[in-house]
């Protein structure tokens, strides 16, 4: 009985997470208010989806709406909208997913759809906010990410926030008929050691 209540409390933390405030961005729980043609379009943009699993099927606003509804029901994922403070504009999403409450771990994934925000430190700031959230609010022990070897910018972001390369998964990702190696990086919560 205690375990069930604990899981409910943890899910409440994931769903009703606080606003995470950074210097140039803030993160808020992804909700139906973020669903737009622009957001749906990110998942159809070949540049935005070059190094991720999106873009294999044409995305619609209905599919985007269904995705947002589904993540808000799941007990092992927290998805945040990345909002530019300057323009109060939704420019991407970042998630802490595949949360294992037993292993106290989770996977960070990011999508910056607003291409005019690429190369401006948004990814690094969003990663730092989610790492702090995962360690300090959810009490997780290990956070990890995987990215293609050719996604040099995201590898740099992960290393900048303290993630360490753990290994390489050979030809683990397929995009447009090409198999690509994936770099696996992780960071441990030093306060829990």
List keywords for this structure.
5 helices; eight-stranded mixed sheet; globular; 193 residues; alpha+beta; Aminopeptidase; 8 strands
Describe this entry's structure for a reader.
By secondary structure, the chain is of the alpha+beta class. It has a single domain (2-141), classed as Gcn5-related N-acetyltransferase (GNAT) (Aminopeptidase, 3-Layer(aba) Sandwich), CATH 3.40.630.30. The chain has 5 helices and 8 strands. An 8-stranded mixed beta sheet has the order 1-2-3-4-5-6-8-7, with helices on one face. Strand 1 (20-21) and strand 2 (25-29) form a beta hairpin. It is globular. The mean pLDDT is 87.
Compact summary:
By secondary structure, the protein is an alpha+beta fold.
């Amino acid at each position: 009985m205690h375990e069930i209540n604990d899981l409910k409390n943890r899910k409440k933390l994931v769903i009703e997470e606080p606003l995470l405030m950074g210097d140039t961005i803030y993160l808020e729980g992804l909700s139906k208010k973020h669903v737009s043609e622009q957001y749906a379009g990110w998942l159809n943009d070949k540049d935005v989806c070059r190094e991720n699993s999106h873009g294999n099927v044409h995305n619609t606003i209905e599919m985007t709406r269904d995705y947002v509804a589904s993540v808000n029901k799941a007990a092992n994922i927290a998805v945040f909208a990345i909002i530019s403070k300057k323009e109060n504009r939704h420019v991407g999403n970042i998630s802490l997913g595949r949360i294992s409450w037993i292993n106290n771990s989770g996977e960070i994934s990011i999508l910056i759809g607003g291409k005019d925000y690429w190369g401006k430190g948004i990814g690094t700031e969003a990663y730092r906010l989610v790492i702090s959230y995962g360690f300090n609010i959810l009490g997780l022990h290990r956070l990890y990410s995987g990215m293609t070897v050719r996604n040099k910018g995201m590898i740099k972001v992960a290393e900048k926030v303290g993630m360490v390369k753990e290994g390489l998964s050979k030809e683990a990702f397929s995009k447009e008929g090409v198999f690509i190696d994936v770099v696996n990086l992780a960071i441990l919560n030093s306060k829990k050691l």
